[in-house]
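A.,

Following up on our hallway conversation. Structure tokens first:
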């Protein structure tokens, strides 16, 4: 019985990492599409996605894991790569995405289930 519980817990950890990575990738690719609309849609979907993950899995720790994986993707996208390419530009929209994205992820991870 303990093995089943551990396997379910491991699956929940993996789900939270995958959700955070997918939300981070989608946010990085969509924040600059239709400048005010893409940014708002990205921020709202990130907040709702992390909140819903914690709601469906029933624990706040999975929201924190998802938020940390989102943050890892976004920070990696904001640093220059091998060819000095950036996925998050240093313009107003990119700065707002980083600022409000981190605030949204923090708020939705700290919010009660």
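Then the amino acids I'd put at each of the 113 positions:
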């Amino acid at each position: 019985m303990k093995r089943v519980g551990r396997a379910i817990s491991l699956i929940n950890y993996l789900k939270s990492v995958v959700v955070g990575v997918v939300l981070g990738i989608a946010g990085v690719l969509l924040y600059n599409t239709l400048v005010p609309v893409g940014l708002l849609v990205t921020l709202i979907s990130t907040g709702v996605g992390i909140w819903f993950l914690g709601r469906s899995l029933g624990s706040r720790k999975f929201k924190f894991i998802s938020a940390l994986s989102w943050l890892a993707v976004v920070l990696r996208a904001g640093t220059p790569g091998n060819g000095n390419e950036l996925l998050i530009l240093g313009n107003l929209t990119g700065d707002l995405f980083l600022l409000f994205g981190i605030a949204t992820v923090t708020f939705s991870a700290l919010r009660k289930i």
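Residues 25 and 73 are 7 Å apart (CA to CA). Curious whether your intuition agrees with the design.

B.
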